[in-house]
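EI: anyone free to look at a 756-residue chain?
SC: sure, send it
EI:
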Amino acid sequence: MNLSDPNDGSAKTVPLLPAASQLAPSSYAPAKWVPADMADENPTFSLMEYWDAICRYKFAIFAFILAGAMGALILSFLQTPLYRAHTTLEVEDLNENFQNLKDADPTAQAPAAESYFQTQIKILQSREMVDLVIDKLNLMQRMAPHKHFWSGWLHPASQSNPALEREQVVDTVQKNLSVQAWGESRTAEVFYDSSDPRLASDVANTLVQTFIDESREIRWNSTQNTAEWLTGHLNELKKNLEDSQNQLQQYARSTGIMLTSDKQNVSEQKLQEIQTELSKAQADRTDKQATYETIKSTPIESLSPTLNNPALQNYLVKMTDLKTQLANLSASYTPEHYKVRQVQAEINDLQQAINAERGNILRHTQDDYNAAKRREEILAAAYSDQAKGVSDMAGKSIQYNNLQHDVDTNRQLYDALLLRIKQAGLAAAMRSSNVVVVDKAKAPVLPYRPNFPMNSALGLLTGLFVGVGFVLMRDRFNRNIESPGLSQAYLRLPELGVIPAARLASRRFAWFPATAKVPLQLASGQNGASREHANLAEAYRATLTSILLPTLHGEGPRVLVLTSPEPGAGKTTVTSNLGMATAEIGRRVLLIDADLRRPRLHRLFEIPNSFGLTDILRITTPLEDIPVNQLVRQTKIPGLFLVPSGPTTDGLSSLLYSPRLTEFLQRVAKEFDLVLIDAPPMLHFADARVLGRHSDGVILVLRSGHTKRDAAMLARQRFDEDGTSVLGTILNSWDLKNFRSPYAYGYSDAYKYTAV
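SC: here you go
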């Protein structure tokens, strides 16, 4: 082939492929090598591929964004404007133990600072506070619920029910009220929302002031109640103190008790030790008695898992098996049958062994129970003796100590209560509040809801996320093979070439089949049709190089079958263009139209279909006696020959099983450098699988955006099951503008390259 160099104007002969003499017949089987990063049947998708999908469907994403923004604006316009008033207050830690009154108040506690602050926030939002605010501001009139014309029909009782109307007002106030505390500070912000800005500020200010007044009133009432309680119990404590002193003096004079000795302390310690051991013995005896009673009254089959007796468990397992055998034999034989009687005898023996084992277990358990019972009785007797001795030795001293303790306690209570009465009187005279208003609420000027900028931004983001998610999910679950590299990733087959898409059906051929001329006018000013033909021609030359490249290191394929998983992949177009590309480099190439149901090669090359492959396989004349020029047809392209499909007859598929097919392919493989067979889609017909067994390899033609991944994988599986070598795939009709892939790096730049 001669390529003209536009720089020097001279013609240079560039050998694209090896000479025809190097293409000897062989059983070609190329290595099925796949890059390691593409060997997964479910390859991962890179960020670049996701970005390409977003760019490819950018208008759809923009439509989602626009719809989200419009929806947000419409919803914003439909909302009723709300005004928010807010006031800030500080809640200081309250000194609950002022004048030590906490010790005198039986209900006083010392709450943590944080819990106290949170409690005040809850009280601020309580129902009682809301009721007080409603009464002070006459909200029953200012916030009267709006009644629709259907209210009387849906809720007839609500027209004359003040309690229900008040509940509605309370619910509305609590719903629009919110309190927020910030971090570790002691400040809180009170917010109230309303469609009336004046009402919003009035409710916020009145609520805070009511909370301050109520908290002050509660504290004053608490102090007053404490003082009254202390005064009422002072005389009672004084009388108790006098009575306890008199009792102590009388008991001391009557008994003459002085002090207790160390021996009495040792006796008490010993008594405690005996009591501890007695408690343990009682618990042990109770446990063993329960075990003994359970074993005694419960069937052995129910106790087997809890006894942890391997022998008994083994007996029970054997008994279950024997009863199963007896049930099976009883279904077939009478009770007097020797097999039934034999199994019954084994059951009786085994039952005796189980009863004996149960007796042993029961005796052992009873012995343990009796031993525990004897130990308990001994400890109980020892405890009784020791308790009697301790009681005799220290009874009198204990009574004396009790009386002395009562005297001391009553004296302490009386003195403390007298002091608290004086302190409570001082605290009752002081009314202070620990809540301070920092910032008073003012009537807002602008509504805070709806927030048009925020709603618009949320609508835009929502539309963006929904649009991107829709696009990525649609692209991720697309089952079509659309771009270069995907067939390698899914099929684990080399990709021999990529054929760009033709904008018009008349431009799908890189060469004009009638003349095999290529309009390679690629200088500046070339028209679009010439550039498209040039790109197609270069794509087919690159594909042919991938097919024949192994001849540099050995023998290459001589007979190839081109097929596709499904119709419409363009296999006939690819076959004819590869044939013309092979003839262009000076090789003798033969095209065989084996698509007997839809033959097309004879139309492309303007050759009559009166004699073809069906005739060759059907006639009985030995092929050695027929000259090659009578079996094939010379096309208008030098070096390119064609065997049409031939006339259509009955039993087309059965012709391919004829032994003459093998003879014919062996004959033409010797006469031509390359034989290309156009076979029908292999998932619909078995012709391609039959032809593949007689060839050096099969090439799968896949159409970008049309061939399903599952169909291609099934086709590959069928050929692997047949033991047919698949050289690789050819991606046809790839549109660079619509389908991109990270595996397709370099294709776009290659198709932009021009030459004359």
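EI: The chain is about 55% helix and 10% strand.
SC: 👍
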